[in-house]
Design brief:
Helix content is 4%, strand content 46%. With 299 residues, the protein is mostly beta strands. It has a single domain, classed as Sandwich (Jelly Rolls). The chain starts with 14 loop residues before the first strand and ends in a 13-residue tail after the last helix.
């Protein structure tokens, strides 16, 4: 069973690109797959990086991500299985488990760690980096976390379940993540086999789908496209996302946000608009004033 089409049917957003990702190591040796932030896809404005970590072998994740700095963007981490602990230089800390989400604004600077809480078992999640506009790159750092119980869940036609983490859904739910410059939409979809769903999206938003489990059918430019588990589809222009579950159980994450259209200059853990700003970030970090108010400590 699928959701009915509107009388004046909207234009579906077709797949404009498929990302298989590249296996890599990050942190203190965590094995992950990088979909955005590699030579295949350096960015998808405003998305700077998309990593998937998934293993039931502790050697692949147990060393975690010890203390490291960031400036100039935001990170969002979703956990599907296992537990991850966050601690940062502002004194904030917290643990998210299955169904939980963290949203961290690095702003002018933050030093944080992300460490697995379990010693064995499956750790599975996503981390996405979202750019900040130039006018907010030096804003105060911030951290928010929400457990699964804090996130609205919609039950739609055919038993489809949609968890609304950010933005407002077409069925009236509003996610707990608010006040973000890029106006993000973040939804976690679970679809029984044979069911189909749809979600309106602003035409000016960049959008993508990540398949957590099962496989999906989504519109293509000329024919439907099948998306297997652990794949990413970039969505082209149109009014709404459409998808259909092809296996017994299917799960996908929908992400959309407003592009910034600004220069992007990367320097390791820092993302700014110019090379001079990157060099300043390194100087500030080395001088232990990464999160200082602009002008503080300068002579």
């Amino acid at each position: 069973m699928s959701e009915p089409l509107a009388a004046n049917d909207a234009t579906p957003r077709p797949v404009s690109g498929l990302l298989a990702g590249r296996d890599t190591l990050d942190g203190a040796g965590v094995r992950l797959r990088r979909f955005i932030g590699t030579g295949d896809c350096l960015q998808h404005d405003p998305f700077l990086l998309l990593d998937r970590f998934a293993s039931d072998n502790p050697r692949d994740y147990i060393a975690g991500f010890p203390e490291h700095p960031h400036r100039g963007f935001e990170t969002v981490t979703l956990i599907f299985a296992g537990e991850l602990e966050h601690r940062d230089s502002t004194g904030r800390n917290g643990v998210i488990g299955p169904g939980g989400v963290q949203w961290m604004t690095a702003g002018r600077g933050i030093v944080h760690s992300e460490m697995p809480r379990q010693r064995q078992g499956l750790l599975h999640g996503l981390q996405l980096w979202v750019n900040l506009p130039a006018c907010l790159k030096l804003c105060p750092p911030a951290y928010r976390e929400f457990a699964a119980a804090d996130i609205p869940v919609e039950t739609r036609a055919g038993g489809i379940r949609v968890r609304v983490l950010a933005g407002s859904s077409s069925h009236g739910s509003r996610g707990p993540i608010t006040g973000v410059a890029t106006d993000p939409i973040l939804q976690d979809w679970s679809l029984p086999g044979g069911t189909g769903g749809r979600e309106p999206l602003p035409r000016d938003h960049a959008a993508l789908l990540y398949v957590v489990a099962g496989s999906l059918q989504v519109p293509g430019e000329s024919a439907p496209v099948r998306l297997p588990t652990d794949s990413v589809a970039l969505l082209g222009g149109g009014d709404e996302m459409r998808l259909k579950g092809l296996e017994e159980d299917n799960r996908a994450v929908l992400v959309a946000a407003r592009p910034l259209g600004e220069p992007v200059v990367r320097g390791g853990p820092f993302v700014m608009n110019s090379r001079d700003e990157i060099l300043q970030a390194f100087r500030d970090y080395q001088a232990d004033r990464l999160a200082a108010e602009p002008g503080d400590g300068e002579v």
